[in-house]
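WARN no homologs supplied; continuing
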Amino acid sequence: MMSRFGIGPTAGASWRRRTMGMGGKIIGEYAKGKVDKLLTPEAAESTSRHRIMHFLENMEAAVLEANCEVMGRELPNLDQTSFLRMAVRVAELRADYLRAGLKVADHRHPNAAAIDELARVRRAYEEMQAVFEAAERVIERGYVKLG
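OK structure emitted
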C-alpha cells in the first residue's frame, strides 16, 4: 500500500478513510503499526491534543444545537416581557428577604418562627435568582430567538 504522500509503502500502517458523524467530514486515519513509532513524543502529543480539541469543538456545536432545539421548543414564551417579569419578581423577593431580615434584627434573640420565616423568604429569593440567571445564560448564548 502506498503512503498518503505516494512515496512507497507505509511499513505496516494501513490507511483508511472514515466519515465523521457530525458534518460528514472525511478524515484520514492510520492504524497503529510501525509508522507510529516514527513519531516523536511531542508530535504524538500534538496529534492527541488536536484530536481532543476537534472532539470538544464537535461536542460544543452539538450541545449548542441541542440547547437551541430544546429551549426553543420548551420555552416559546421566553421573551422580553417574561424576562422582565422574572427580573421584577427577583427584586420583589429580594425586598421581602431584606424586610424579613430587618424585622429579625429588631430582636436580639429572635424566636424560632422568625428565623424559619427568614429562611423561607431567603430560599424563595435565591431560587428565583437562580432561575433568572439560568434564563440570562439561555439568552446570552442564543438558545432562544428573541423578538
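The longest helix spans residues 41-74.
OK
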